[in-house]
Structures are given as C-alpha cells and as structure tokens.
Records
---
Amino acid sequence: MSQKKLPGPGLWFLLRNGRQLSADPLAAFELLAQYGDMVLLALGPRRMVFINHPDLVREVMVTKAAQFQKSKLLKRVFEDSVGNNVFTGDGDFWKRQRHLMQPAFHTRRIGAYANIMVSHARQLVDGWRDGQTLSVSREMMHLTMGIVTKALFDADLRDDSAGAAFSRLFEVVGHRIARQNSVRLPYWLPTRENRAVRQSVAAIDRVLQPIIEERRQSGRDTGDLLSMLVMASEGGGMSDDQLRNEVMTLFGAGYETTANTLTWTFYLLSQHPEVEAKLLDEIDRVLPTGRPVTLDDLARLPYTEMVIKEAMRCYPTSVAISRDAVEDVEIGGYVIPRGTMVVLSQWTLHHDPRFCDEPARFRPERFSVENEANIDRYAYLPFGVGPRICLGNAFAMMEARLALATILQHYRLTPAPGYIMHPDFRFTLRPSGGLPMVARRRKIENSSSSP
Ligand code: HEM
C-alpha cells in the first residue's frame, strides 16, 4: 500500500469471521481497534482503512478534507431511496445544497422552534397514563417526527406509517453496509430486501408528497426550510426529484437520530439513579411549579445538557463515518491510495481509555464547563466534525434538552421488568426491542396550562 505496511487482520481471519462481524458492526469496530490506530482491511481489490486516533480523524475530516469525499458505499446504499442529496452528495452540488438550507438552522431561527418542541413534548406526556408500559423508542420517534415536520415544513405529521417505513429502510441500509464486502445484487432485482426498500419509499412518499404539493399550490412563503427548497426548485435551482430527495433526507436525518439520543438518555438514567436524582433536582429547581420550560431556561439547565452529551458519548446514534480518498493522500505517515475507503468509528473513539477517563462509566460531570475543555473534539464527535458536521446539531441539542426537561417534569421512566438491553445497529444505533419502560407520574404539581 505504501512505504510502510499497515497492520490488519489477514484474509483467512476475515473469511472465518466475516459473517459474524458483519452481523455485529460494533464488535467489528472493537476488533479492528485492537490492531492499532490505523488498520488495513483488504478483501480482494477492496480496501478499507480504519482509523482510531483523534490526530488521524483531524487529518481526514478537517486538514485534508478536500482530498476526501463521501464514500461510494454510503451513496450506493441510499441510491435507490433518497438518491443524491445534501447528506450523500459532494463538491459544488453539496456546497449549493448546504448553503441553501443553512439559514433554516441559524441559531436565531432555531430559537423560534423552542415553542414547537416544548408543546409537542407536553402533548406527548399528556397522552401517557401512570403505570403504563411504553416503547420509549416509538414514543420518542413520534415526538421528534412531529417536531421536525412542524419546525421545518410547517406540517402536522405524527404518522406512524412514515416512521415504520423509515425504520424498515434504515434496517435494510444497515444490512447493506454490514455486508459491504459480499456480492452485490442490483437494486432493480425483486429481492425481498429491494422490495422492502421500494415499499418503504412509497410509504414515505405518500406522506411527504402531499406536504410538498400543498406548499407548491398555495404559494405560501412561511420562510421555513420547505419554502426555501420549493422556491429554489421553482427558480430552476433544483429539480422536482431533487426537492423530494432533500425533503426526505432532512425528514429522515432530523427525527430518527434525536429520537435515539433521547431513548438512550432514558435508558441510561434508569440505570443510574444518582444521575437521575441530580437531574430531577435541577429541573425542579429551575421550573418549580412545573411551568413549561422556555428557551431562556436552558442556560439554567446545564446538567440537563451534560446528561445528553454524556448519553451521546456512551451510545452515539451515529457509530461510524466513512470517506473515500479522491487522490493518493498521506495520512499518519502512510500513503492511502485513491479510491480507498477510510472509516472512523465514534463507538470506539468515545470508549477509548486514552481519550476518555473510565469510559465505561456514565458520568455527565465530564461535560461540565471546566472538564469539557479536556475533551478532544476529534475523539468525541457525535455530530461529526469539519465541513460536513451535522447541519442540524444545534437544532437537535435544543430539542433534546427541551424535550427531556418537559418529559421529566411529568414522568419518570423505569425499566420494564425482565427487559435486557442490547445495542441494535440499523444504520443508526438504538436499544433493542424498542426499549419498553414503565411511566411513573411524578408527584410534583404541574400547572394546568399547556405551553
Ligand atoms: C442527535 C441528533 C443527531 C445526530 C447524532 C446527528 C449526527 C450526524 C452526523 C454524525 C453527521 C455527519 C456525517 C458525516 O460526516 O458523514 C450528520 C450530518 C447531517 N445531519 Fe445530523 N444528526 C442529528 C440530528 C440532525 C437533525 C435534527 C437534522 C436536521 C433537521 C440533521 C441533518 C443533517 C444533515 C442535513 C447532515 C448532512 C450535512 C452535510 O453533509 O453537510 N441532523 N448528522
């Protein structure tokens, strides 16, 4: 590959363990990390380099970002559902799309979304009963889907059919990624998996197309993200297909990730009563009468933010990021040939004791103002890093904090008897089985007024 030879598991090892490793991507990343900070995985002509050190992450994602693009693998696994879009695209196309959408995510603008986030969270808990067993994953998806469609598309959507369709799509995408080295059948073949993708896409289209159509027909300019996209398409800056791809991408990227983050947070709180008690104490002190949380309250809820950041460290919903080298490029003293896929994993970086003290412990204090300065930003990257950092990161952080505070004002969630959690990778990481938990109404007297 270059002057020096990269370490990595041999062909024989891969043939023997390939099936098991592709069934468990987290185990695969952990195994690769044992070989070193830069590991070569070669199967026939396909080459992948796994990097597991913040200095290498910085090189690939920031200083030499121009020599990389989104991986062909990522583009391929999404090509028959959301096509080319701001998430998978590159070059001038990506720049144009990101530039077009950016205003909807400016800090000033997302402040206006706070009311939507709080009122949706309040409506969610208003529908719960004391002692009810809930699928936390499903409830959080329902919540974040409603928020993202209201905030970005000014539409009311809490349709479970779209959520189920996205879940199925991500499951197939997860399988496709895990099987990257096996024989690839064309997506037009009517295999069970390809049919599942087509059905999921049709179900999502049935929900999203009327929203796009309504905005087009009404000519309403609400100044939201959908208006920006529709105006760009009408001005000739984007085809109808492109508009649909972007709406679908933002919808998918915008709800599932935040829902998983909240779900993991509830799981971790249920396993760490001392953290939960401290968090409830903060929320009750800042919002003593159970009044609705506001944007201004967030500055007085630092522990709430620390808990979410630590939950994203322990269980990052995005577990890996991939790029392809567009030319021969030197990384960590090795020449990576053009076309090689480079992969980093938030899962291994966030749990590496070299970059994080006692990584197995859930300890939100590591994100206090004084401690956070010690965290290497290239070893903690739930939202990615560099020019392709998550467009919705500020939106998601605000949403997660407001939703968590609102829910915990009203309910505690305790583990359902007998539940055993396994992390479940379906393109994003979530707890297995939808995370069943029992809702316990809190004694605190809440004001009756809805926000
Ligand atoms: C906790 C919630 C979220 C997490 C953990 C998350 C994670 C990520 C990560 C890791 C990336 C970078 C991928 C890469 O570099 O290859 C990304 C990109 C992106 N995310 Fe998020 N995301 C979240 C919420 C959101 C929300 C709420 C939206 C929009 C409403 C959103 C929209 C996007 C978009 C459009 C990109 C592509 C940006 C680009 O390539 O320029 N995300 N996200």
---
Amino acid sequence: MGRGLFISLEGGEGSGKSTQAKRLKEWLESQGQCVLLTREPGGTPLAEQLRQVIFEPAAALDAVTESLLFQAARTHHTTHKILPALAEGQVVITDRYLDSTRVYQGVLGEKSVAWVDELHRLTAGDVWPDMTLLLDIPAEIGLPRAKSRGDATRFEAMDIEAHEKIRQGFLQLAAAEPKRFVMIDASKSLDEVSAQMQAAVQKLLERGDA
Ligand SMILES: Nc1ncnc2c1ncn2[C@@H]1O[C@H](COP(=O)(O)OP(=O)(O)OP(=O)(O)O)[C@@H](O)[C@H]1O
Ligand SMILES: [Mg+2]
C-alpha cells in the first residue's frame, strides 16, 4: 500500500494554524481523502499529558529538559499515531511539528537547530513532513489575534518584538528548505488563506501517491 502524505502547519501564535487545519481537513475530505488531524505538543493521551507539563506556567523548565519533553511527546506521537496513519495511506495534518521546536528552542533558544534535528534523528526515526505550510503573518496582526482568544499560555505572554523574532525564525528555516516549505500569507481573510493552502496541497496530491 502506498504511503500517505504528511503535512505540518507552522507559524507563530495567532497565525491561524488551528483554524485552517480544520478547514484543510474538511476540504481534503470533500476530495475523498482520509485525513488524520492532530497537533503538537500532543496527539496521543501521553503526549497531551506532557503538553500540560510543558505549558504549566510554574514549570520552570531549563532548556534541555524542555526540549526533551517536547521530543518525548513528539516521539510518542510520531510512533503511535502519525506513522500508523501514513502506513494506511492517510493524509496526516499536524498543527505544529518539529519546526516549532527548531524555532523556539533552536533559532531563538539556548540550543541550536542542528541539536534539535539530531535529537529528532536519534529518537523519532528522522520523520519529516512532506510539506510544511508556513502561515506567515506580521506580529502586529498575529499578536492581537492570539490575545483575542484570551487563553494565553506562557509562550503567548509576549510582546510584539518577541513575536516578530519567532516570525523571522520560521522565515529563516523556510529559506533554508524552499522545497518543503510553502509560504502562506496568513494576514489575508480566512477564505483567502484556505485557498492558498488548498492550492499548495493540491500540487502535493498531484505529485504524491495518496
Ligand atoms: N484569516 C483570519 N482573519 C481573521 N481572524 C483570523 C484569521 N485566522 C484566524 N483568525 C482568528 O485568530 C485567532 C487565532 O487563530 P488560531 O487559533 O487558528 O491561531 P493559531 O495559529 O492556532 O495560534 P496558536 O499558535 O496560539 O495555537 C482566532 O480567534 C481565529 O478565529
Ligand atoms: Mg492553535
């Protein structure tokens, strides 16, 4: 049986990942695809428990422990949910994946992107998305959107400058891998963003074996 397609959605807080992940799933299903929508950190009961630990405001995690917790969640999620779905030929959409750790703990944090990548190689079978949709949005637009939801985690309690640094981190990763990353202008309307994403995924379907 053919292998499915693995799509990750990345971008800063309030860029619209969770909103668009659901829309993309619905669109793919309307095209007859079997879709698994999942998220990180999380995606399995154990990884969701780790998510709570990671986002606990009083956790006081050092950089290495934090990275290891993210990667423990990712390994469990990859092994027990993503890979089995791909083996069945499903399209897997994940709301954040490795690139979020590469930006937050690698580009911006105390560890390097190479360190994050090596950890992933050692622990999660070096699984990479076939396509990463980067929902790019200026901090001035994205931050108010994130705050408007009123459920800020410790990662979201940040200012415009921090938000813009995250944006630049994602742009840096995208520039290094122009084949895997597809830039999405997330400042547009919901429908316009969905259309950009559908066009990208349509191309992936045409060249993939799903
Ligand atoms: N294109 C858009 N235009 C206007 N509002 C939007 C758009 N996309 C998303 N929103 C709104 O912005 C808020 C944040 O969107 P969403 O939760 O999807 O972002 P996110 O990328 O998942 O954020 P986080 O990384 O914090 O989970 C929501 O209230 C959503 O309804
Ligand atoms: Mg979200």
---
Amino acid sequence: MSNQVIFHPGALEEQGGDLVQMGFTCDSCGKTTFPVYELCPFCSSEHGKKAPLSKVGTLFSYTVTRVPVGFYKPPIVAGYIDLPEGVRIFGQIHADVEAVKNGMKLKMETGVIWTEKDGTEVIGYFYTPYAKEGEGAE
Ligand SMILES: [Zn+2]
C-alpha cells in the first residue's frame, strides 16, 4: 500500500471510516468556520464545538483555468461552495466545464488529488455535481 497524507493538517478528519471536513461553531456568536481556528475569527471566543460539515453545498461562483497548475491538468474548475452552516469553501470541481453553473448543487468527495514524485499520495477534497434523485448515500 502506498503512503498517503492529507493535503493540509486539519482539513479533513476521519470519522467512522469516512473523511469529513470539520467545522467549528462558536458558542458566543453562533457562526461556523472552516477550518477550525483556535479563536473564533468573528468574535475571538475560544469556546465552541467541532462538528462535521455538510457534504452538499451550492456553488456561489467559479473559475476555469486552462493552463497546467502544479500537478493539476487543465481545464481546472475551482469555485466557492456555500454550505448550509454558513461556511463558504474553496474547492476544485470535478465536472465537465459546460455542466458547471452557479447555483448548482455540489457534493464533497475525497480522494487522491496528486501523487508526489516519491509516490506519496496526497488526499484532499473536491466537489462533484450532486444529483438530487436516486442519491442514497447521505
Ligand atoms: Zn464567535
């Protein structure tokens, strides 16, 4: 089995065999942040609860990059996804460029996002179009 690492510490956490994005909901102001900060960026409170974020969100805006960037091959679609918790997450969107529209529903998935030269697989999250009907997983 190859060596695997998560692309950024704290970005994903394992829960019940599943990788989830952990948010932090502040006890003082009630806002949720991602990633988890030591102090609430809205009110500086350090009291709150960590909880997994919703996997399905709504695309706020996106851009398409048509040149290679690092390990990524074009076209690279990336955008801001609004989650029900009030968090706006930046992520790549794995979909046909023509199928991507602002306001569409997207689902967070995890997997290998690039492989280092030494073979280490880097695990991260990305978004794919979410089909409302026939969706049984969540
Ligand atoms: Zn707060």
